[in-house]
Amino acid sequence: MGKTLFDKIWEAHVVTEVEGGMQVIYIDRHLIHEVTSPQAFAGLEKRGLPVFRTEKTVATADHNVPTQNQHLPIQEKLSRFQVDKLTENCAKFGVELYGLGHPYQGIVHVIGPELGITQPGRTMVCGDSHTSTHGAFGAIAFGIGTSQVEQVFATQCLLQNKPKRMRITVDGTLQPGVVSKDIILYIISKLTASGGTGYFVEYAGSAIRSLSMEARMTICNMSIEMGARGGLIAPDETTFNYLRGREFAPKGDAFDQAVAYWQTLYTDEDASFDQEYVFNAADIEPMLTYGTNPGMGIKISEHIPTPDSADNPATFRKSLAYMGFEGGESLLNKPIDYVFIGSCTNSRIEDLRMVAEYVKGKQKAGNVNAMIVPGSQQVITQARAEGLDKVFIEAGFDFREPGCSACLGMNEDKIPKGAYCVSTSNRNFEGRQGPGARTILASPLMAAATAIAGKIVDVRNEQ
Amino acid sequence: MEKFNTIKSSAVPLPIEEVDTDQIIPARFLKATTREGFGDNLFRDWRYHSGDSAKEDFVLNNPIYAGEILVAGKNFGCGSSREHAAWALHDYGFRVVVSSFFADIFRSNAINNGLLPVQVSGEFLDKIFQAIEANPKAQFKVDLEAQTFSIVASGDTASFAIDPYKKMCMINGYDDIDYLLSIRDEIEEFEAKQLIP
Ligand code: SF4
Questions:
Q1: How far is CA B195 from CA A12, A159, A258, in A?
Q2: Do A315 and B187 touch (CB under 8 A)?
Q3: Radius of gyration of chain A from Cα atoms?
Q4: Does the Cβ of A426 fall within 6 Å of ligand 1?
Q5: Which residues, at least 6 apart from B195, have a Cβ–Cβ distance to it below 8 Å?
Q6: Which of B15, B73, B105 is facing A129, going by the closest CB pair?
């Protein structure tokens, strides 16, 4: 019986098993940020413990950071306190920190890959559910709680039950105007927000194979949005080419040796999964969410379902009431107040290039406030080098400095109560982008088209 | 971690599905650097108007309902991995959350903080909601050792699953970290053999 990609990596990391079946898993890389680490550092301090493997731990400040005037001290008191606490803890415990002002600073799930910290075959964790992003490289990467952050600090290990295995195959060719964000929004709309719970998902098929690393990361990023612990994609030439030359990737002969190992990381022909789904890429259209969880998504050509057709009509009605939508209506031509292009889902250089190409020579609609927030210092530097910043500014966009920003509104970037925001982020929960904010998740292309049109349009009919 | 054994209590009903951790504790309250005090902001935006006045129709503001047990619709705790959600529920006074389905990370965070997630069938969940509707003071009994949840008045009982190791930890108040620290030698041996850098 063959093994799945997931099995191969998992088994290579089992230190021991405890009675009842839980396993101790070794963690190769631990990423931390300011929000979910302070209580874990405090726990270490209370126990008088050091960070066990400082060289396997990397920190950055992303959730709280302002996206304007990053060279100045953080204005908001509590945010500044939390970011300062991270700096203090990292200094005290000897953890490498890419804080504000550092050329490597950025959203934790953007910097891991771009620095080459994320590598095939590794286990990676972070006190952050979107750690699933790193699975795009053929790594086992998942989010953990703060108590577990403390465990990894102290022992570089975690106690885990092995998740079940799911494979989602997407074959065929995407229509023009349809991108990887649409693939994952489509999958989540089919599986629901809990359809992946208990599973680790492998994404496979020709449509997935044809994607760039950035596009693969967008897909793995949102695995958690269907409840899965993580998602992963078998590494291939695209992966190796992306990693070659990156700061922390192996160099020279070591790189070739690494590739030889990475090439063994795939699911064997005769391996079996606990659950399988197959989709056809050609069926996917630009996707939008209409409700308050990421499973509530439709194709642009579809209408919002009616509450009576929902599993739980009461919850469904509550959700539509929050969004100010009616069952049965179309989202086409809905006027939009805000557009947010950013977050660990869609703030990489490729996303910015895609948006720039679309908005070049066009003007943002007057009724829309459109913000672009790059994922990292490296992304913003690259964008400037390519002149994308000028394209955005000329088109009327507000081009900001890197951070999580309006994805979760921990800094000043919030969407006002009742306002509609077409967002490239990953969560449309009530109040996620600010109390009372109404979030519609979409691809960067759809977000760009919305900003130009001032309302929701089908990007396939624009240009 | 505090020890958990049996609890007998009335329950607070929250018959809403897909309650995500952004609702349990919104992001803007995650700026604290200690574990305490999150209970004040539990379900903040469902509980209070923007001006901080209480929303009368939210269940936590209804004095009829009280207790150490929260009963909620399916997929409770989905979304963000923030352990603050478990801290907030515990800090508020809950020791048990009952649902027909829990998100993975929330489940593990809850157990690591002495908050017991009890997963029952959709039908049994409805029975619990009905029992509370019939009598807001209805008593429920949770027995971790026996892995049972009972509606005291009717005697209806459901059993629930929990990993045997995690059960032992909750009953004795042990943290995973104590165990992991005890096998440090084994971890170092593993590192010496490991080929992945
Ligand atoms: S961008 Fe959003 S989802 Fe990603 S790590 Fe930051 S807050 Fe979390």
A1: 9, 21, 10
A2: no
A3: 21
A4: yes
A5: A261
A6: B105
